[in-house]
Amino acid sequence: MHTRRIGDVKVSAIGLGAMPMSIEGRPDEERSLATVHAALDAGVTLIDTADAYHRDADETGHNETLIAKALATHGGGRDVLVATKGGHLRPGDGSWTLDGSPRHLKRACEDSLRRLGVEAIGLYQFHRPDPRVPYDESVGALRDLLDEGKIRMAGISNANPEQIRRANDILGGRLASVQNQFSPAFRSSEPELRLCDELGIAFLPWSPLGGISKAGGLGSGHAAFGRIAEARGVSPQRVCLAWMLARSPVVVPIPGASRPATIRDSLAAADLTLTPRELAELDAA
User: Are residues 247 and 253 in contact, defined by beta-carbon separation less than 8 angstroms?
Assistant: First the structure.
């Protein structure tokens, strides 16, 4: 497995997004554990989770507990960077709410520490800005958690360029990652990707395969991914991730998966080198 860096930690060039294993439509636990184990067997050393990745109101942290169990039942789970998040909540009715208060974030971190069974969280990310709470206060909670040794690295998610610069300042230059939505069908995070490239901060695209149909297309305007995939004899999902990796060395995609075959196919993108002509065609798609 090719590697990239988040902060001072070397991770697999493609990580595993674990959310699909805990929200609506999730598989049974046996298949979820098999999916995580397949990722580990293939060389994954980055798993992304969050306390809000659950379905019902009384199961906050379902995904974190699942990941902890998967790592504990696999011999290769010791060297994995588990990235989790706080600040988003799910009341249990399918909606998402926010609480970016320092009090909540610090309490949420303690709960995540307990569920993951670790002394310090490898990467803790502020899940989404809360308009009711000054951004400086929310990120200040991450700074405190860093200084207290509760987390080893701090990241932010769903942030704009101004928030990225502000967070890095508040953290004293210690912002390790930015996790934003980015895919062929959702490219509005281009400015954030470019800024992370400039600053050397890891950029973790969430929902990187969003919009890709099983038939291989991405709707009108994105047929190039399907054409190149057919010519190469690989899946359009693999082409998509290879395209992302080529955008910048700071990009570390975290495709979601709930089946072993799905994550294996995604991970193979790290070995797919697209030509300059193919990349230009995909950039313009």
Answer: no
